[in-house]
Amino acid sequence: MPRKAKQADKPFFLRHWQPITAITSVVILLSGLGVIANENYIQGQISAAADAEFAVELAQLRVEEVSATLDDLELAIQNALEISTEAVGQTSDGKDLEALVADIEKAKEIWVKETTRLLELEAAVKALRQKIDQGTSSGTTIATLVKSVNDAVSSDWGKIVVQIVSLGEKITSVQVAQALWEQEQEEVAAEKAEAEAAEEAERLARARTIAPTSTLTDSGGSTAPSAPAPPAQEVVVAPVEDGENLAYITSYVAALAPNSFISWVPGLCDGYYVCGRAWVGGVNSTPVRIELDPALYDIYVNTVGISVLVHEAAHARQWLKYGSNIITANEGYTGLVGTIAVERMADCATIVKLGYSTNVYTSSCTPSELEAAATIW
Questions:
Q1: Is the pLDDT of residue 180 over 80?
Q2: 117-124: Cβ within 8 A, 24+ apart
Q3: Statement: the pTM of the whole predicted model exceeds 0.70
Q4: Which tens digit of pLDDT belongs to each residue from 55-79?
Q5: Which residues form a coiled coil (predicted)?
Q6: What is the pLDDT of residues 357-366, one digit of tens each?
Q7: How does the average pLDDT of the chain come out, rounded?
Q8: CA 259 to chain centre
């Protein structure tokens, strides 16, 4: 029988080659994945750095914006404080002022809170910038800082502007209330001035209660009243506070003539703009009574009223120096006869003190008269 042909054996190496090939493929595949992973890591780092730079840029813009707005709020608070201080007692009911004061306190709280938040944002931006510059931080750290910065940037900062607007509205309300109050005060002052003018006109229309002549003799008596005409323009000599005119007048006369005292006589100057009168007698050191009208406190402190005070004080000083020779001595200085010489020299003594007189008995004096008049002071 013919023998069968011997079958060729299967290549022995195939069984071993397949797993080797598989292992090689895995190694190649893993190497490829490593390259891809490294590239992805690098790309991630680049992306994180870009996000960080963008976050820093936006944050810096926000810091500048908020800083400027906080400056505006601080200025608004300062303005509100000044206006609230000036408006004290200058509004009708004070409610608008109370609302402004309360809003100022609220604005201060907002300024402190928002300034603190701004400082925290600046600190976070600084930390992020440091990480970017170092370039070695993990993506996780950068991402955390970026989120923190972005959250702060995108948060609500609007209450600062809202508070500025609120202060502005309340300032306006106070200023309107203050303007209304000032208008009311002007109306009250006008009504008061009108009433005073009517009262003054009525007083000037009254019959004069004192004679325009002197009763003075060597033994004493009253001087003629110093009753000057109203000034063309009334000017207050001393800025006297309301209600303090009496004290001022009293101390002023006492300083000029310590040997005198004031007697306030109601209605003394009826029919006159202003007046005064001195009563002398006794010995040289006997106190001289100076009569004034209590209705004229405001007039006695103006330029004309002051001249009356000085003129009457001069009579007291004349009596202190000359006593019973008061008429004779002054006749010798002026060349005039009688009590008119005493009145003229009292006006000369007023010129020595003030530079002007009552203009009732004279408006100017000779050098010798002024020299003699100065000796009584």
A1: yes
A2: 117/152, 117/155, 117/157, 118/63, 118/66, 118/67, 118/70, 120/152, 121/59, 121/62, 121/63, 121/66, 121/149, 121/152, 121/153, 122/63, 124/59, 124/148, 124/149, 124/152
A3: no
A4: 999 999 999 999 999 999 999 999 9
A5: 56-83
A6: 999 999 999 9
A7: 85
A8: 45
User: DSSP label at 276?
Assistant: -
Residue 184, both tokens: 């009311």
The answer to whether residues 274 and 308 touch, using CB atoms and an 8 Å cutoff, is yes
Amino acid at 65: E
Q: What is the DSSP letter of 157?
A: -
Structure tokens at 336: 């005039």
> Reduced to 3 states, what is the DSSP secondary structure of residue 51?
helix
Rounded to whole angstroms, how far apart are CA atoms 358 and 227?
A: 8
pLDDT single digits (tens) 79-106: 999 999 999 999 888 899 999 999 999 9
CA atoms within 13 A of residue 179's CA, in its CB half-sphere = 6
Q: Are 267 and 210 in contact (CB under 8 A)?
A: no
Nearest to 344 by CA among 319, 362, 318, 368: 362
Whether the CB-CB separation of 268 and 275 falls below 8 Å is answered with yes
Name the DSSP class of 323: G
First to last CA, the chain: 181
Residue 111: what pLDDT?
Answer: 96
- Name 278's bridge partners: 290
Q: What is the pLDDT of residue 39?
A: 46
Joined tokens for residue 188: 């009250």
Residues 6+ positions from 282 with CB-CB distance below 8 Å: 220
Residue 160 buriedness (CB in 10 A; 0-12 / 13-18 / 19+): buried
**Is 141's pLDDT higher than 70?**
yes
Q: What φ, ψ does residue 372 adopt, rounded to 5°?
A: -70, -40
Q: Which residues contact 293 (CB under 8 A, 6 or more apart)?
A: 264, 265, 266, 267, 268, 269, 274, 275
Reading phi first (left if > 0) and then psi (alpha if -120 to 50, else beta), residue 292 is in beta
